[in-house]
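Example S7 (structure tokens).
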């Protein structure tokens, strides 16, 4: 099996987080809040490297800086994330224990926390890779989520995968070898045919899987404009609906 990530995920700069960890019922989570009161929130769903990976915490802090209570729960519920030392031939078995469409209970727990403990009235969701698949699933199932952004992760094996409940933005890299151009084309054709809400699909030139969550110091110079564009597009989509 080819490595899903072409970037060397073992080489990352450190990151001093701006938020803090909380316990939400049976789930640990990382939360960052803006400096002012807001009733708007965003849930961030991590990739296979888990809720403590520096890149995902940077994204949480970035979104919070735009005025949202932002939370990244441990959707693995204490199970080990994928590690840079793991072998890719074990990936299929690992995925069986970390199913991105079995996140509904945890999503409901976090939604309840945001509404009852944080005063959130509008809530969006953003997910990367594994988390992108989870976002696609939740945008088909949970009407409490007012908008979603799925970055390089889609549900492939459900006939209902085009019946989005609320506005959803799909972000892809042109050179992502985990999601083919044919899959993206099919998604676009079927959404145009069946989807009754706002949606958007955008492919970023030259970008591989995992490109949009890199911290600035870890970006390659040629990729930086596209990473920054994808992040701006993500934030703009959230602001449009949340």
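Recovered sequence:
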């Amino acid at each position: 099996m080819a490595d899903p990530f072409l970037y060397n995920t073992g080489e990352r700069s450190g990151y001093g987080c701006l938020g803090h960890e909380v316990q939400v019922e049976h789930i640990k989570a990382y939360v960052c809040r803006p400096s002012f009161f807001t009733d708007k929130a965003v849930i961030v769903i991590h990739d296979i490297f888990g809720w403590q990976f520096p890149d995902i915490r940077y994204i949480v802090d970035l979104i919070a800086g735009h005025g949202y209570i932002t939370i990244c729960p441990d959707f693995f519920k204490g199970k080990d994330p994928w590690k840079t030392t793991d072998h890719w031939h074990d990936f299929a078995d690992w995925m069986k224990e970390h199913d991105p469409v079995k996140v509904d209970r945890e999503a409901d727990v976090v939604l309840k926390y945001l509404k009852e403990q944080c005063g959130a009235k509008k809530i969006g969701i953003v997910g990367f890779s594994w988390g992108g698949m989870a976002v696609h699933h939740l945008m088909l199932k949970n009407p409490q989520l007012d908008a979603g952004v799925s970055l390089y992760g889609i549900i492939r094996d459900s006939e209902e995968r085009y019946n989005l409940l609320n506005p959803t933005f799909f972000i892809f890299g042109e050179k992502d070898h985990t999601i083919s151009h044919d899959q993206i084309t099919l998604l676009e054709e079927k959404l145009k045919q069946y989807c009754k809400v706002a949606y958007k699909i955008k492919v970023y030139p030259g970008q591989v899987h995992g490109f949009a969550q890199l911290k600035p110091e870890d970006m390659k110079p040629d990729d930086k404009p596209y990473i920054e564009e994808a992040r701006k597009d993500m934030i703009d989509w959230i602001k449009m609906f949340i």
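Notes on this example. The longest strand covers residues 122-128.
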